[in-house]
Each structure stands twice: as C-alpha cells, then as structure tokens.
Design brief:
The structure holds two protein chains of two kinds. Chain A has three domains: about 35-175, Fumarate Reductase Iron-sulfur Protein, Chain B, domain 2; about 190-360, no CATH class; about 365-505, Rossmann fold (3-Layer(aba) Sandwich). Helix content of chain A is about 50%, strand content about 5%. Chain A is built from 24 helices and seven strands. Chain B has helices at about 1-30, 45-60, 60-65, 65-85, 95-125, 130-135, 135-155, 165-175, 185-200, 210, 215-220, 230-240. The chains are: A mainly alpha, B mainly alpha. The interface between A and B is large, with 80 and 64 residues.
Chain lengths: ~500, ~240
C-alpha cells in the first residue's frame, strides 16, 4: 500500500472528466466462510446464486418502497452525476451515483419490467451475469452511503438505499465483504466492533480515571454497568482507545461530572456503531440495536445518550424507535415498545445526542469554560454525512448543524467555516464511511477524501485553520489515516468534545 | 381511419390509466419500514406538503444540483403543463373560462417546450457525464416529445388542420360516438405519437411523475423520536419473539 498517493487538487471551475474503469477491480476482501456463517449468511458464493439473487431482489422490492420507487423513477437527468466524492476523487464514471444505481437498475429492468424483458438493449437492461455480479461487488463497495446524491436528486433517489439493497443481495448469496461482516460478528460475540472484551474495557476506563485525575486533579468517573444510573451512554468503541476519539470520551465524562449526572456505560452494549445498516440487512440492524434496549432495561436507566458517531446517530435517531422502542410515541397496545418507553424519562428526547446534552447544559449555564484553553486552535467543523443528512438534533430542522457549532463557539474563540457548498446538508463524506474503513480500500479512501481536503486546504491557507472538529468515529479514524497523505498533520482532526474537554472548568482541585 | 384512431385511442388510454393506477397501487402498497427522510426535513405533515410542493412545482433539489438542467427541465415541464391544459379545449364544450384564458399562453408554451427539450437533448448529447449514462431509450424519449411538439407547432403555425372537426371527433370519442377525423397527415402523426406516449408512460422512466410523491426521502416527516414508525412486516418480527 506504500504506493498510494493523494490525487492532485482540482482547478476550479471543475468539469470532472471521465476515466472509465479507473476503479475497476475485485473490490475489497471477500468475507470468509467462517465470517459469513457466524452471522447467518452462506459461507461462499452459492451454486444457484443467479436465481437466489433475483429472488432476493424481488423480495427487497416488495419490502422497501424506497428501492421500488427508485428503480423506476430515475430519468438519467444527471443532477447527481458530479456530486459523489468517490466520483470526484476517482473519475470512474461508475462512481457517479446514477451509474452506480444503474448497475442494479439495468438488472431490475431485465427481470422486473416489460420493456427490459422485450427490448433489453433499448432500455439498457442486462442479464445478471457473473461479470455483472463482480461489478456489483466492486462498485457497491465504493459507496459510503453518505446520501449526498439524494440531496440533489429531483425525486430524492438515495443511492444509499440501492447500495444497501445490493449488499444485502450479495450477502444473501455468500458474496459479502470481509470488513463489515467480520465487525458484525464481533459486536455479537464480544459486544463491540473492535472486539474489546469486558475486562479490557474496565481496565481502560480505570486507566482513564487515573489519567484525568493526574491532568486535572479531579475525580472524574467512567462508570460501567451501574444499575440505576440515570444516563446510559452508548458510544462507538473507538472512543475507548483510539486517538483522537478517546479525548472526546473524556469530554463526555467531564460534562457528566460537571452537570452532576449519574451515568454508566454498558459492557453488553459497548458499541454505538451498527454495521447492520451498512450491509442493508434489517435483521442485523435490528439485532444490533436490540442490545441497547436490553442494556437499558437491565440497567434501568432513564435516558439514553449517544456519543460522537455519525452512522450510529442516524441509526439511533432515525431507527432505534422503530427497531427497539428507544424513543417516544408508541401505541397503547404496543407492548414491546411500551415496556421500555415507560421506563424512560420523556422530559428528554430519547435518544439524546451527546451534543444535545452538552448544549442543553450550556444553555442552562450549568457549565463554565475557559475558552483560552482552546486559543491555540483555529477550528473548522466537518459535518459528518449521516448526522447531516440522516438525522437531527434539537427541535428544529438543521439543529444537527447548529448545535455542534454552537458548542464549539461556546468553548473556543477561533471558528472558521469551510466553503458552504461542502458543509451542512451538502457536506462531503470523509471518504471512509459506510463500511469502507478498511486498509484494503485505502486507495479509494484517499481518493474519496479529495473534495474535503481541497476545501480544508483553502481554510488552512486563508485562515490558518489547524483543527478540524467532527462528531464521527469513522471520520476521525479516516482523517487521521488519510490526512498525512495529503500533507496535513494527523492531529489536526478531533472531536467536538475534545474541545469541550480542553476548556471545561470542573471546579477547584482537591 | 377514424375508426382505427378511435380504437388506438381507447386502447392507449386504457393502458395508460390501468398501467398507471397499477403502478401507483404497487408504490402505495409497498411498505417503507424505516424513517429515511433526507434531512434537514420538515417535522410536520404540513411541512412535508410544502416540501413536496416546492419539489414538484419548482424542482427545488434540481435547482440546487445544476442550473442548466434545472432551467431546461423546468421550462419544458412548465410549458408542457400549459400546453396540456390548453388542449382541454378539444375535450370540453363549452370551453371552461380558465382554459380559454390560458389559450394564448398555451400556444407560445409550445415553443418554450421545444426549447426546453432541445436544451435537455443538447446536454444529453454533449455533456460527457450525461452522455455516458444515457440509454437509447433516453434519447428516443426526447425525440418522441420533440416530434409531438414539432408536429403540434406545425399545425398551429404552418399547416392548419380543421380544429373544429378534431374537437368534434374527440368529444365524440368521449361519448363512444365515432365521428370523422380530418385526414390530415400532420394531425395523424401528432395523434399517433401521443398514443405512443400514453402507452409507454406506465412502463418507462416517465414513472418519475407519480414516483416522486412516493419517495420516502421526500415525503416522510422527520419525527422518528416522537412517534414510533413500524411497518407490518417489521412488526411481525416482534410478535415472533
């Protein structure tokens, strides 16, 4: 992987030229028998994969209105064609959202529509051959499901929905991707994506308590499996030991400490991430989400708060209520959801994002900060795709943009925005989301980061930005890996609660 | 010939109506198991209606995406709406007041419609990315619409047809009374192409018209924390437990 280099920044105005087959290939590592079977998929490509795949596609078309409508509605207008970071970075035309969808749409037309059955050539319909299947595997693993294309589509076609369906079909015939499927196995077996067992986790947390004590002189606790705590914190497992993630975990703990909140982590549900979404498998999505329900019921908590993680917040905010009942407004007779919802305190939003929690405390004047502690940072904020386009914070649409920025401005003095066509709902993916954060896709990840790196370079040049805050574990991991390849210092990226942690005043040293 | 066109029109209308209803029924019957509005999204039903209205009337998302495609596409669709409404005069007696009012605009809309279509085709032919994603049917669809528009405009501005007789024919058709259709080549071409469009509609990308209303990223309310959203098949997973 030593030969991976960053593509050159583009000269504006940008007319992306096509480089057909620039990213043709075998795709990421295929999951082994063991990995697949552990989570209920066939070990390897089944004999009758063709019929099985078509049958699965039919099933998904009848279960998901999104897929059904999106297969029909596209008019090839090209609105999305220059919007994908992977297309911009690779120039491979099959990374244009419409072309990626068409990999599946062409098969849909052939098997599920009259014109495709009668005149395949005319409407661009194709048989599902082995070549097409391999193409699916390659290119549906070059989509981070970031939904940027769906912002611009006049019919709201979301390529993420198509990618999820494609991966679900591939998994159902034993052609799954190693990275995602291995992680899903781990979350079931050990409790988190990184495979950090309970005792190691407890050790880590004790170590953190000592570190914070040493740095601040204050006894900030990192409790785990505490029954009767008010708040259950569900956070990505990277927060427990990866850099810079861990600094944000310290930030959350300090906020809980300063607000006098009793809180706990859970060893059973020591992971906010839910890769079930990435592979588009409802059963996995649900099973992984149910761990949190179980932990909440067992610990008897009143609130569930989610740490800095993009796709996890989308799953938590948008799907948890559906999947596991974590939320409000279940019907009277909905015993499954009522069981949990009766336990939760509905004066608060369920679930709550840690940024909502902190911002609420700031608004109540429950926290004090020494902004000067962040003076060495000139900060910009990278909106993470799943937070930006698949969730919300607070009461108003767009709160997911305002609240993290408000927090940054409350704890630091130097804040600069990046170019507006690359932030908020139009933000670019970091290049590593959607189950692609694996070294066998490093080339793709570096190229996919191009649009973000370009605008970061602008604010670095114009304003001397030296810190890019973000609220996603994948963004943090991806940027620390690819930014050095673009010539940035990897320590430039960090969490919003890392900045909170720097500036928060915890009281007098004991 | 009048009889042939009558049969053609009845059949085409049947295919169009039944095909479209069938498609809409499928969309409506297919569950949307998860909340997937593209956020920021409205938090109330009223807000969703507004969002959808902006999308359908002004092509809001396309406007954000690409001004060229938006301007050509919007010009075409707005003109098409006017032209279609203007054609109501051939099916109503007496002609409704507002249809009479838009008549002059409808005629010029034929020209702007042609402009829009040509603009879209130029984009499809000359922008590399869009040429890459175009299938033969994409080009044919534009050609069909352009042919309909041009044949209509020619009748309006160059070789008039007997519109009174045409109107009589269609009013007749509506009452299952086959009258005489002027045997005018342009008219026949125009009508033939329109029947083709009707037949193709429910089987083609023209389904984007009903489809947009069923698009979960646009028609869902952003309230997943406040209200539990559960589809029938997903609910079953719970009762099995």
């Amino acid at each position: 992987m030593a030969d991976i280099t960053a593509p050159a920044y583009r000269i504006i105005p940008i007319v992306p030229a096509l480089k057909p087959d620039a990213m043709a290939g075998k795709g990421p590592f295929v999951a082994s028998d063991k990995i697949n079977e552990a989570i209920g998929f066939p070990g390897q490509l089944v004999e009758d994969w063709h019929d099985k795949a078509i049958a699965k596609m039919g099933e998904l078309l009848s279960k998901y209105r999104s897929l059904k409508v999106y297969m029909d509605a596209c008019v090839h207008c090209g609105a999305c064609s220059d919007k994908c970071h992977y297309f911009i970075g690779t120039q491979d035309p099959k990374n244009m959202p419409v072309a990626r969808q068409d990999l599946m749409r062409s098969v849909y037309r052939r098997y599920f529509t009259l014109p495709g059955k009668l005149f395949p050539k005319l409407v661009g319909a194709r048989d599902l051959t082995r070549e097409v299947l391999d193409e699916w595997y390659n290119y549906f693993n070059q989509c981070s499901e970031c939904r940027r294309c769906s912002v611009f589509c006049p019919y709201g076609i979301d390529t993420a929905e198509v990618t999820m369906a494609a991966r679900e079909i591939l998994d159902s015939i034993g052609y799954g991707q190693k990275y995602s499927n291995e992680i899903i196995g781990k979350v079931h077996k050990i409790g988190n994506n990184l495979g950090l067992p309970g005792p190691a986790l407890i050790d880590t947390l004790e170590g953190l308590e000592e570190d914070v004590k040493e740095a601040t002189g204050i006894d900030v606790r990192f409790p785990i499996d505490v029954k009767g705590a008010e708040v259950l914190l569900i956070t990505p497992s990277a927060d427990f030991f990866a850099e810079p993630h861990i600094d944000s975990l310290i930030g959350y703990a300090k906020v809980f400490h300063a607000t006098g909140t009793s809180w706990t982590l859970s060893s059973m549900a020591s992971e906010a991430g839910n890769f079930g979404m990435f592979i588009g498998n409802y059963d996995q999505l649900r099973k992984i989400a149910l761990r949190i329900r179980e932990a909440a019921l067992e610990l008897g908590v009143k609130r569930i708060v989610v740490g800095e993680c993009g796709h996890a917040w989308r799953v938590a905010y948008s799907f948890w209520n559906t999947l596991s009942g974590v939320g409000d407004g279940a019907g009277e007779v909905d015993r499954f959801a009522q069981m949990l919802q009766k336990q939760l305190d509905h004066r608060y939003k369920q679930p709550t994002h840690i940024c909502e929690f902190t911002w609420d405390a700031i608004e109540r004047n429950a926290l004090t900060f020494d902004k000067a502690k962040n003076d060495k940072h000139i900060i910009t904020f990278h909106d993470s795709c799943n937070v930006a386009r698949g969730s919300r914070m607070g009461d108003l649409p767009g709160g997911q943009f305002e609240i993290p920025r408000n927090i940054i401005k409350a704890v630091a003095s130097n804040f600069v925005e990046m170019s507006p066509e690359t932030t908020r709902e139009q933000t670019f993916c970091c290049g590593g989301g959607g189950g692609l954060l694996t070294d066998d896709l490093l080339d793709l990840r570096v190229k996919g980061a191009l649009p973000r790196m370009e605008v970061l370079q602008q604010v670095v040049d114009e304003h001397g930005v030296n810190f890019m805050a973000t609220i996603c574990a994948i963004c943090k991991a991806q940027f620390t890996k690819v930014m050095p390849i673009y010539g940035f210092d990897r320590r430039m990226v960090g969490g919003v609660h890392q900045l909170v942690s720097n500036a928060i005043i915890l009281g007098e040293e004991k | 010939m009048s009889m042939l066109f009558a049969i053609l029109f009845y059949l085409a209308t049947l295919v169009f109506v039944v095909g479209l209803l069938q498609r809409i029924r499928t969309y409506a019957a297919t569950p949307a198991p998860l909340k997937i509005p593209t956020t920021p999204a409205p938090t109330t039903t009223g807000g969703v209606v507004l969002r959808m209205t902006r999308e359908v009337v002004f092509f809001e998302s396309l406007f954000k995406a690409n001004l060229w495609t938006w301007s050509m596409g919007w010009l075409f669709h707005a003109s098409l709406a006017l032209v279609t409404l203007r054609h109501l005069r051939y099916f109503t007696e007496p002609v409704w007041g507002w249809v009479a009012f838009i008549q002059p605009f409808g005629i010029y809309a034929g020209i702007t419609m042609l402009l829009g279509l040509c603009g879209l085709w130029v984009r499809r032919l000359f922008v590399e990315r869009i040429r890459y994603i175009s299938t033969p049917s994409d080009h044919l669809m534009l050609l069909l619409l352009i042919a309909i528009t041009v044949s209509g405009l020619l009748m309006q501005f160059v070789a008039h047809t007997d519109v009174v007789a045409v109107k009589g024919y269609f009013i007749g058709l509506m009452h299952l009374d086959i009258r005489v259709l002027p045997s005018d080549l342009l008219l026949m071409l125009h009508l033939m192409l329109v029947t083709t469009l009707l037949v193709v509609f429910p089987f083609s990308k023209l389904l984007h018209a009903p489809g947009v209303f069923f698009s979960p990223t646009r028609n869902q309310t952003d309230n997943p924390r406040e209200k539990r959203h559960l589809s029938a098949w997903a609910a079953k997973l719970e009762s099995e437990k």
